[in-house]
Specification:
alpha+beta, 11 helices, elongated
C-alpha cells in the first residue's frame, strides 16, 4: 500500500512539473493544466506557489504524518473493546456493530469498529474465496417456490436441537421457524401449515431427500415419487409440487440462511439468557424473526404474488399424519401404544371391524375419521376430548377409504 502510494505521488510530481513548465512557457492556461491534473484551478495555483518556494518538497501532501482530527480517543477504543470482551464475545463484527449502534449509542462506522476489534486481536479476518459457482436466479414472484430445511446445532443452553426453517425463494423471507427436538414429518407439516395459514397456498416446495420427505429406493439415488410419504401425500392433496434437491449446493438459499442464523441467533439467545426450548421459540418468533426479515428479505422482481388464498380448505386435516386402522370389538383403536375409545356416534350404532383413519396433528393431538366424518378427538395422551357432533352432510376434502375426495386444489395455484 505504501509503495503504491509513493509511486503514485512520484508520477503526480513529474506530471505537475511538465504542466508547470508548459504554463510558464505560455503553452497552457492554468485552467487547462488543472483539468489535466484532475484538480481545481485554485488548487493548481496553490501547488505552483509551493513549487516556487520549496520545489518538489512543497508538493508533498502535508497531511501525511499528522494525527487526524477525527481520530477516536484511546478511551473510546478501550470502551468499545471492553464492551465486546464482556458482553458480545463470539459475535461476528457486523452483528456486533449493529447491536452497539442500537443499544449502546455507538456513532462510529462499521469499518472503524472492525479495525478496532482486529487491532485488539478480538476477532480474526474473514477468509474470502472458494469455488466459483453460478448463482441460481430467484423466482420472480412470492409463493412460486418455498424452501424448507432444518439445522442441528447447539442453539441455546448446552444441548443440541433442530431449527426448522421455511422461507420464500423470491424474497428470502422466513415464513416459519421453530425449534424442535428432531426434525421429522410433524415438524415439516407444521412449517408448511404456518406458511399457508399466513400467506396462502404456494406452488412448489423445495427440500432435501430426507426420509420424511421422500422414499429413496437406493442410497444416494433418485427419489420414488410414486410412493409418497405423509408429507408428499399432503402436498399432492393440496396440489403443491414437491421438488427434491440432490446436493447441499442446490439448497444454497437455505444453507446461507442457516449460516446467518448460526452467526446471530445463537449469540442473541445467549445474550438474553435463554436456555430452554419454550423461551427460545418465543424469542425467535416474537423478537428475532421480525428484525431478521426486515434486514435480510429482498424485494421480489414482480410485485404480484403466487400465493393463493384457500377459504374453506380444512388444512388442519390435510397437513397431518394419516394412518388407517381397524376398530376392535370394544370400539377402540390402537395407535402408538395408546387405546383410543370411540364415543357413541349419531351416524352408526358401532364401528366394530370398520376401517377408520387416525389423524395425528403436529401438536400431537389425535382424531379418528370414518370417511369424511370425524368421530373422535383426543388429547396427546389419548384421553377423549369433548364428544364430536358433526352434521352428516358436512364433508371436507379428505381421503375417503383408499382414495381421495373429489374436491380439487385451487386451480389458480396449479396454473402457476
Amino acid at each position: 500500500m505504501r509503495r503504491n502510494r509513493a509511486l503514485t505521488e512520484a508520477i503526480r510530481m513529474e506530471r505537475f512539473e511538465e504542466l508547470y513548465l508548459a504554463v510558464e512557457a505560455g503553452r497552457l492556461s492554468c485552467s487547462d493544466a488543472a483539468m489535466i491534473l484532475g484538480c481545481s484551478p485554485r488548487h493548481f495555483l496553490r501547488l505552483r506557489s509551493r513549487y516556487d518556494e520549496d520545489g518538489f518538497a512543497g508538493l508533498r501532501d502535508r497531511r501525511v504524518g499528522q494525527v487526524s482530527r477525527q481520530r477516536a480517543a484511546d478511551a473510546e477504543v478501550e470502551e468499545l473493546t471492553q464492551l465486546y470482551r464482556d458482553r458480545y464475545a463470539g459475535f461476528n463484527m457486523r452483528h456486533f456493530h449493529e447491536l452497539a449502534r442500537r443499544d449502546h449509542s455507538l456513532r462510529r462506522g462499521y469499518t472503524w469498529t472492525r479495525l478496532a476489534l482486529l487491532s485488539a486481536g478480538l476477532v480474526r479476518p474473514v477468509k474470502r474465496g472458494g469455488t466459483h459457482r453460478l448463482k441460481r436466479p430467484r423466482k420472480p414472484m412470492r409463493g412460486m417456490m418455498i424452501h424448507q430445511d432444518a439445522s442441528t446445532h447447539c442453539w441455546y443452553g448446552e444441548g443440541y436441537a433442530d431449527l426448522v426453517v421455511t422461507l420464500d425463494d423470491a424474497t428470502s423471507e422466513i415464513t416459519s421457524a421453530f425449534f424442535c427436538k428432531q426434525e421429522g414429518t410433524n415438524s415439516s407439516l407444521r412449517g408448511i401449515h404456518e406458511t399457508i395459514a399466513k400467506h396462502g397456498l404456494f406452488c412448489s416446495l423445495y427440500t432435501d431427500r430426507g426420509s420424511h420427505y421422500f422414499f429413496t429406493p437406493e442410497a444416494g439415488g433418485k427419489v420414488d415419487k410414486s410412493r409418497p410419504t405423509e408429507v408428499g401425500r399432503a402436498l399432492r392433496q393440496l396440489g403443491i409440487d414437491h421438488i427434491a434437491a440432490y446436493s447441499p449446493e442446490a439448497r444454497g438459499r437455505s444453507e446461507r440462511a442457516f449460516g446467518t442464523l448460526q452467526g446471530r441467533l445463537v449469540n442473541e439467545l445467549k445474550l438474553a439468557g435463554i436456555a430452554d426450548m419454550a423461551a427460545a421459540n418465543h424469542y425467535l418468533t416474537e423478537v428475532y424473526l421480525p428484525r431478521h426479515n426486515a434486514q435480510f428479505a429482498v424485494a421480489p422482481e414482480m410485485e404480484a404474488s403466487a400465493f393463493v388464498a384457500i377459504p374453506g380448505y380444512d388444512i388442519d386435516n390435510i397437513l397431518c399424519v394419516q394412518e388407517d386402522r381397524q376398530v376392535g370389538a370394544d370400539n377402540t383403536v390402537r395407535y402408538m401404544g395408546m387405546i383410543l375409545q370411540i364415543p357413541p356416534s349419531p351416524f352408526r350404532h358401532h364401528y366394530v371391524k370398520m376401517r377408520v383413519r387416525v389423524h395425528h396433528y403436529p401438536d400431537d393431538c389425535l382424531a379418528i375419521f370414518h370417511g369424511p366424518r370425524k368421530i373422535g378427538g383426543y388429547r396427546p395422551d389419548g384421553t377423549l376430548q369433548d364428544e364430536v357432533q358433526i352434521d352428516p352432510r358436512e364433508c371436507s376434502p379428505l381421503r375417503t377409504g383408499s382414495g381421495y375426495a373429489s374436491a380439487s386444489p385451487p386451480q389458480a395455484a396449479l396454473a402457476l
